[in-house]
Amino acid sequence: MILLTRKAEFSASHYYWNDDWSAEENARVFGKCANRNGHGHNYTLEVTVAGDVDPVTGFVVDLKQLKDVMEKEVIAAYDHRHLNLEVPEFKTTIPTTENIAVEIFWRLRGKIPGNARLHRVRVYEMPDLFADFYGGF
Ligand SMILES: [Zn+2]
């Protein structure tokens, strides 16, 4: 088995807010991130697939097909969007780096081309902050 990782980037806005809390509680917990007008990040996505190298092609996955799946399932939905307002899963889930990694994993699960399987989704919100999700809890 071998792991292969493909990167992509997207830019998106978000804010942190829990509807069950008062404005004061949201401000206390989330600070500036609770500003309902939102703020933006340039996210880096890394999708790692696992599988065996095909002896004919030398690939674990067709890179063009993997790129197309990432574009269709994630980038088209997230890039230049306000995550809270425009992406369905974040109407009820706070779009933290952690939750973005989880939701991208579910978007990609079962859609990896060929015989490879989705191993990990890593999302960088900034160069010194990232979250990993492997599909379990
Ligand atoms: Zn932020």
Share of helical residues: 25-40%
What ligands can be seen in this structure? zinc ion
Helix tally?
4
**Major sheet attributes:** 5 strands, mixed
Distance between the termini: 23 Å
The arrangement of helices and strands along the chain is EHEHEHHEE
Number of strands: 5
Please tell me how large the radius of gyration is. Answer: 17 Å
General form: elongated
Structural class: alpha+beta
Cross-sheet strand order for the largest sheet: 3-1-2-4-5
Mean pLDDT: 97
**Low-confidence segments:** none
* Percent of residues in beta strands: 25-35%
Set down the secondary structure blueprint.
Layout: E1 2-14, H1 23-30, E2 39-51, H2 63-78, E3 81-82, H3 83-86, H4 97-108, E4 117-126, E5 129-133
Parallel strand pairs: 1-3
Antiparallel strand pairs: 1-2, 2-4, 4-5
Give me a quick take on this structure.
The protein has 4 helices and 5 strands.
What does this structure look like?
The protein has helices at residues 23-30, 63-78, 83-86, 97-108, and strands at residues 2-14, 39-51, 81-82, 117-126, 129-133. It has 137 residues and is an alpha+beta fold. Strands 3-1-2-4-5 form a five-stranded mixed β-sheet. Strand 4 (117-126) and strand 5 form a beta hairpin. The two termini are 23 Å apart. Bound molecules: zinc ion. Zinc ion binds next to strand 2.
